[in-house]
Specification:
The chain is 8% helix and 42% strand. It starts with a helix and ends with a strand. A hairpin with a 5-residue loop joins strand 6 and strand 7. The model has no long low-confidence stretch (mean pLDDT 97). By secondary structure, the protein is mainly β. The chain has a single domain, classed as Beta-galactosidase, Chain A, domain 5. It has 3 helices and 22 strands. The protein binds 6-O-phosphono-beta-D-tagatofuranose. 6-O-phosphono-beta-D-tagatofuranose (TA6) binds next to strand 19 and strand 20. 6-O-phosphono-beta-D-tagatofuranose binds next to strand 19 and strand 20.
């Protein structure tokens, strides 16, 4: 029996959960319930689609996303762990950590009493991961699919010394037209403007988009909303265990340079990332577990 057959036999749930092979030989969970549909690649425990019934797709995936073992997927909810951005000291290590391109195992899949479907994944540690991150730890990613999408990243320090943890749910969200949306909920927050030479600025009012935007908002409040007049909806994002919110759109030149956004791909997406980044990284004591959660709900406003 191959890996796909084993997954279907062990975790499949009739009419709600099955497993399939993606391009590049990656395996994915395919979810379809009365509330929503979703798919999650086992590599990176990476949510690659989510759409609530009677709503437009919520999670954006590039039409030119590449699927290959050990390669990051453009779109969805990449798990950035155990650091965010460039590695602090070693340029050989991948930006945003190794978790999103490493294999994860599915530990559990169940229908909750309220009908939501929850899958729990754990990163498979290896010599390769330990070479980059020698801290004794486990990390689990739980995805709950209902009328909203909930993702929880739980890190446990299984060692005897504290370590610093940087992380993000690097979530790509579908918007009708980036030029027409704004993001409420970050007013008054300080942010690091990565397009402006990492200058520190303060947000005044909603966040609008007229150019490449790459900001790490600090000491954020755990709730923001993407207001999207083109799709006549808002996306409400609430989070716990996160002190940073990253907002990113590559705009025209950066998207072309990255090469996997597709023609005008930048127009239909925005990243709003639930994170612990910059000075908001977490110091995790031996035996402690840190949980970071994000909930995404599509609200019709038309
Ligand atoms: O979260 C924003 C960011 O750090 C940008 O600076 C850009 O690098 C983006 O992540 C995408 O990174 P990736 O490694 O997925 O191409």
């Amino acid at each position: 029996m191959n890996a796909l057959e084993k997954l279907n036999r062990r975790f499949g749930i009739a009419d709600q959960l099955g497993f399939e092979e993606l391009p590049g030989g990656l395996l994915a969970a395919r979810i379809d319930t009365a509330f929503a549909s979703a798919s999650i690649a086992l590599q990176g425990a990476h949510v690659i689609s989510y759409q609530a019934k009677c709503h437009a797709p919520l999670i954006w995936l590039s039409p030119q996303a590449k699927f290959a073992p050990g390669k990051s997927i453009r779109g969805g909810v990449p798990v950035c762990w155990p650091w965010f951005g460039a590695h602090a000291t070693d340029a050989r290590f991948p930006g945003h950590g190794f978790a999103r391109t490493a294999p994860w195992q599915l530990l559990d899949a169940r229908v909750l009493p309220d009908g939501r479907l929850r899958l729990e994944f754990e990163l498979i540690q290896s010599d390769a991961t330990r070479a980059q991150w020698p801290c004794a730890s486990t990390v689990r990613n739980s995805v709950t699919v209902g009328q909203e999408l909930e993702v929880e990243l739980a890190t446990t320090n299984t060692g005897s010394t504290s370590f610093q943890l940087g992380q993000a749910l690097h979530t790509y969200l579908v918007v009708g037209d980036i030029r027409r949306i704004d993001i409420a909920g970050l007013d008054g927050c300080e942010f690091i403007d990565k397009v402006g030479g990492a200058a520190r600025r303060w947000q005044q009012g909603p966040v609008g988009f007229t150019q490449e935007t790459d900001r790490i908002y600090l000491a954020t409040r755990g709730c923001c909303a993407i207001r999207d007049p083109a799709l006549e909806r808002s996306i409400l994002i609430t989070s716990t265990g996160s002190r940073s919110t990253v907002v990113w759109n590559p705009w025209i030149e950066k998207a072309e340079k990255l090469g996997d956004f597709g023609p005008d791909g930048y127009l239909g997406m925005v990243c709003v990332e639930t994170a612990n980044a910059a000075e908001d990284v977490i110091t995790l004591a031996p035996g402690a577990t840190h949980r970071m959660t994000a909930q995404y709900r599509s609200l019709t406003t038309g």
